[in-house]
Batch of 2 targets.
Target 1
Amino acid sequence: MRRKTVAVRILATLVAGATLLGLGACGSKSGETQQAAAGNQILFGGDSGSPTFTRNFNPFSTSKRIGINFIYEPLEVVNSLDGTSTPFLASGHKIVDPKTVEFQIRDGVKWSDGKPFSAQDVVFTFNLVKKDAAMDSLGVWQHISSLEASGSKVTFHFKDNDVPAVSIVSQQNIVPEHIWKDVKDPLKWTNENPVGTGPYKLGTFKPNQYTLAKNKDYWQAEKVAADTIVLPASNKQLDLVNKKYDWAYSFINNVDKTWVGADKQHNHYWFPPGGTVSLYPNLTKAPFSDVNFRKGLSYALDRDKIAKDAEEGYVDGATQTGLILPNHDKWVNDSIPNKGKVSQDDAQSLEYFAKAGYKKQGDQLVDSNGKQLEVNITVPSGYTDWLRGVQTMQGQLTKLGIAVKLTQPQPAAYTQAQNNGDYDLLISSFGGTGSVFQDYNGLLNSEFAVPVGQSANANFERYKNPKADELLAQLKQAADEKSQKAIVDQLQQIVYDDVPVIGLFYGGLWGLFSTRNYTGWPSEDDPYTAPSTWTQSVLMVVTHIKKA
Amino acid sequence: MKGRHVRYFFGKIGLFFVTLWAAITVNFILPRMMPGSPADAAIAKLSQNGPVTPEVRASIEAQLGMPQGNLFSQYWQYLGDVVHLNFGVSYSNFPQNVSDLVGAALPWTLTLVGLVTIISFIIGTALGALMAWRRGTAVDVTGTISSSFLSAFPSFWLALMLLFFLGYKAGIFPTSGAYSSTAIPNFSMDFISDAVEHSILPALTILLTSLGSYVMGMRNTMINTLGDDYVTFAEANGLRQRTVMLKYAARNALLPNLTSFGLVLGGVVGGSLLVEQVFNYPGVGLLLYQAVTNQDYPLMQAIFLMITISVLVANFIVDILYGVLDPRTRR
């Protein structure tokens, strides 16, 4: 008897407690929406916790906070769309000869702890990343042979004639010697209180959110409009709209309705192309090693339709020259028809397939033994936009009589398959550095084409062409734009004729902006930088925007 | 008689350690059978934003390369680390210690999932008993229909619906996280009420989707018990209805439900992966999801191990309890 009463009481208390909890919470107003940019601040959706933030402001670490890009500065910021650069810690540079460049280091710059910044810090930083390849994410030491400072000048000597190296070394984030010289293991150090030269310092740090506070002593402080940047750890798409973000990066479905529709007056987006999503044939395997076969595939595809289905019409179908248009408009080779964009042409396609040994038989494309042509396309699972594009492509190829199979590994397994050359056809992307040399180098340089089974870092299709290598070597040495253009013209011709990869559509950079609090965001009319939120381009943005 | 007891318990303990060793070993092998390395995962994550330059790829591979040594020496090292509860450094949150990450996530999961599981068990069992007692009435019919309906709901779907309607459309509840973005975890009243507010939608999801099985389990067993002779005997003796219902029928019908409750409690440390994922709730489930997608072997191993050990311990306790409660199992 006694025991039962106790049990009933406990139950009653629990139920009552649970009800009270529920009621109490319903009564109080959700505190989250209150943070919608009050005062002089930017709500920035560019850094996501996993799920909370680790306090790691080491610019050399793979798991660093994105906020370091507001804190540290490079010599110059390179626009990843067109390759133009803007001086930051260097006030300018002079190419002495294709092997030597001199950077003039800016005067009067201070570290955020008050110590003066000098050319010595630049030299120190470069020597620091030399110690460990893991810290050299720009690969600057693949180009530099030595560097030295004299007064406020830093001179780089390159291993070879190497003009593109100028923009590569100029992007190195510079760290203060007086702090980093005492760091024992610079790769593992979490640098909890970062000292940089940039427009912002670390404000408050909490596991769910941190803030960046304006550096009052910044050398161009008058150009920095926002006092605070707020970076929440959770930036789900619902939050971007609901909490009224000022600046974010996200591919939102139906952006006109979901993002713009939430605040028609202020919410904008800009999705410039930032890479070429392409169909990579495995050139070490037949029939993909046959250029006629690749051309057959190329003419079978309606690129604009694929682009539209994949990215909801926000990007265009790609050219077959390897350039990204309109970013690279000034490089276009005018002798290639239609700026290199290939239109769907079934008759042409069948003609090339016939040359490769495949004939139409009924509604099937068959080889000499009468067996239907079957191809396997690898696309990473979870990349829903790419998958939609591939499904459209699958339809177009099936119509031509080709049996298409899709393999969808997990992203990590996909990366492994791509690096090791373990595929027939694979969807991947290239380009987007802003430098035509770097874009073509990663796509074509046979130096990257390690044997299948070994891990490649670029040229995943494993293209080998001595002519292309020779042109790349020439492009490295060409100092003026006119001679560069002549070489880039030939590289375009090679990609167009030889089809090392089949360009499909441009990968967009999904920049979301609100003009509620600030104006002057990068846009199609004013493309001063790419809308990428995880790169140095944020320095350009925060020095351009104005209070609304 | 005494010797048989001892043999039973020693047998159980021996079996526990063999299972533990097997689990620890599987835990070592399984993550390594996944294709791709931590570096591949990090590169894949980066390349979702755009093409990754060969130089960045090379530096990531240098930072997050494959573990050192051959498989056997890795295994030996791993066994030693497990004994010392040293799980090393996380790949995806480099250079954070795995134990710190798990330690930060565990309290959220234990409070949310643990508390809700207990509440769900109590409410579900009570409701099931009541329905069985009044079987055939309106209470029973509505209860049966709604609990089979609720338990058929996928938890992530219910979570998304609650999130969309109560969080996004109505704006009554926060949509993500375990506390406001500006808050620092502490034991002040302000923070606790903030955390409670953030936990309501995930708690509601887990409660609604887990309730049904307890209700139905209890109802069905109790209907069986109600037909047993001793219940009829108690009724014939003229005992009060409540006494018959709670002390005679419900108490005996409780055993199977208690077993499944014990096992579920063992799994609580694993968190509720889908629900935590939808609400971005910083518990063990979300941590595990991120460890798996980032090929973070050390973190995965630590979490899997924690889950396996607690399930094993729960199993062991249930085994021992059965031995105590039901003498027949000891034979």
Note: Chain A touches chain B through 81 residues (CB under 8 Å).
Target 2
Amino acid sequence: MSNEVMSALKKDYIYNLILKGERSDGRAFDEFRDIELRTNVIEKAEGSAWLKLGKTEVLVGVKLQVGKPFPDSADQGVIITSLELNPIASPDFEAGPPRENAIEMARVADRGIRESGAIDLTKLCITEGEEVWMVFIDVHVLNNYGNIQDAASLGAIAALMTATIPAEREGKGEDSPLPIRDMPLAVTLVNIGGSMLVDPGLDEEAVCGTRITIVSNQDGSISGMQKSGDGALTEEQLLSAVEMACKKASQIREANLLNI
Amino acid sequence: MSDKPEKFIDENGLRLDGRQVDEMRPMKMELGVISRADGSCYLEWGKNKVMAAVYGPRELHPRRMQKADSVLIRYRYNMAAFSVEDRIRPGPNRRSIEISKVSREAFEPVVLTHLYPGAVIDVFAEVLQADAGTRTAAINAASMALADAGIPMKGLVAACAVGKVDGQLVLDLNKAEDNFGDADFPMTFTQDGEVSLVQMDGNFTQEEFKQAVEMCKEGCQKILGMQQEALRNKFAGELSTDEVDVELIEEDVVEAESDDVDEGAAEPEEVDEDVEESQDDVEDHSMIKADEPEFEEDEPEDEPESEEDEPEEETA
Amino acid sequence: MECNIVIPGQFLSDDAGKSGHGTYVKDGKVYSLLYGIMNAKNKMSVIPFSSKYIPSRKDFVVGTVINVTPSNWIFDIGSPYDGLLHVSEYPRRVDSDKMSGIMGISDSALLRVKDVSSSMKVELSMRERGLRALKTGRILEVSPAKVPRVIGHGGSMVSMLKKETNCEIFVGQNGRIWIDGTDGNMDRLAEAVEMIMEHSHSSGLTDRVCRFLRNVSDDDSENDENTQKGDFAEDEEDECKVHGDACRTVDALLDAEDE
């Protein structure tokens, strides 16, 4: 048994609970697990956030380096987001280069941050066409208890919001805070038995056929979306998911990000 | 990159960070931090931050990697991209692969590998922040994670490094001493004083070397004490709230074998036969297979490579 | 009684003859191999806090199918070693192509360990009354080391649980417990098992859990509870009395020893 197979009995149990309007950990369908967030935990990183979403735990580090801009955006800094499903975090993760799940989650997180304009890339320009700041966002998963996507997204924005541009170290002037002007947050819902559940736990991820992640911004606009899994959603489910995601994102923002 | 300091040890005999030459950086640890793993330990040593977790024994795939008569130990030392000043690309590199190998070999002499043939014990050590001595920090954390996972070991393993700066031996190098010093000498000691990891990089005279070993050994003994304390303290609070009835536990172990294990299902008659089984068999509860040699026999030891003159009385 | 937490390599005794489970001998002295609780009752033995289930002949286990081959079902039994149920060990004759229909991947079953070879090849059997594929119910997971607590002295704990929750219970040595009953009763039973896990080191646990189950039942509906009690008094009085009394006697003896 290299990957744990969930017994049909367990799947039935979770499924039936949901039909009764309950979740296996007692949460409401629209309830997130408890969030614990600490920033500036890794001094060597320019920004960092240690995040617990229920028992899911991720550590996000932000590092900045001087590099060359892309030719078609000569005056803009560069964002590079990586996520590793590290084998330390789950018996199901294997060592090796990131595979499709890890890559998908990294790219969804990346797009959400990029498209929201949270980082004004022109402010990261040092010398047009020659030198810009490259922002590396690295998500290190420590414990998987479901919904790494949302944990990664929240950790990333928290790390960015508390990051410093290490200008002194690179001889480019004085250190200054990384200018962040929005707080994009991913909220993931899963479809089990026709009901949409927010913040899927480990068991719920194993049972669901469809996952939808929506990244929204402070003003309620949407900067990213991704459906994954082998099932499908009705149009109605999709629209209500988007509405729910924006609502939850704003609650999480208020509870966790306004004071850091 | 910082420049080489002019002096590493000041006129009062103190190092750049205020320590004595034989003083280690402060260390603290916490067990059971990764709930998905079978055992885990978060450890801070100076500014080093490492997370170790153990999965196993568990099934090993592909089959061709399975060892017929013992468990395979795998050790993966990995540094987070943001753990150092200059970001490193994620993934294994030559350095981390070498460290993984020698670290695994540090544990192989103490784990009772013959108990789980064909299976694997995976040890993961993630460096979240690095500040010289990450491989030794990782080993110290891994040692506790293995104990936390219930892996049978002859004893814990402690690791520390000795270096040389300004002609003086120093214990537990910091970053500057590691980068600009004249030697880096990490070792691990097992609980009975054997050396299961030795690496050296730099320059020692024979005399310096002997002193370095002594210094390292003392450091490791202190670390061992801290590991033991952390393990004891993990449950101290919990267990003291209930009456601990240790007697009951062995009673249960004995009784279980002689009882109808599942009331509603199997024939009670068949299980009753087990009642006649000898006490010894019954004590070998499912944790250790009855066929396996009892631990009573003396473990055949290889000739110890320790530098000290410790008389090892072999009675095998 | 002080808690005797021991760690690997810890010295336990000068008497090599006292080496029990979870210990080893070196130079005539006994040391612990495990991180756990030491028991010095007869020999020195150590019960680890954390352990994997290693199958033994005659163990009852609850398993989940992870693969079906032309002649075997391969079961995950919560161990580093999978179990094989050969088609001849199924209670009826089965054609190869019908196997998945009877039990497919993710189906669970009640089984017995028939044999474990020295290379850890685990053979399972279903050729016993009471063993079968499962279609209903739930599987609870507990630490294998604490399974004896769920069974109790002379089966006292498990019979009490059955009586108080009106559920079928099959306790697997591999730390998996299959239960079946009404949803409400299964919920209570699951809570009771959690309580056993949390307080596994305490004495008098059977009574404590019994009281817990009765209190919960009281809150829900007194009528039901009274009806249940009445029924049981008639049918299972003898059976329960034997186990109940035995357990109380043994518990009392143990308590006396402690004082």
Note: Residues 138-258 of chain C form a domain with the Ribosomal Protein S8; Chain: A, domain 1 fold (CATH 3.30.1370.10).
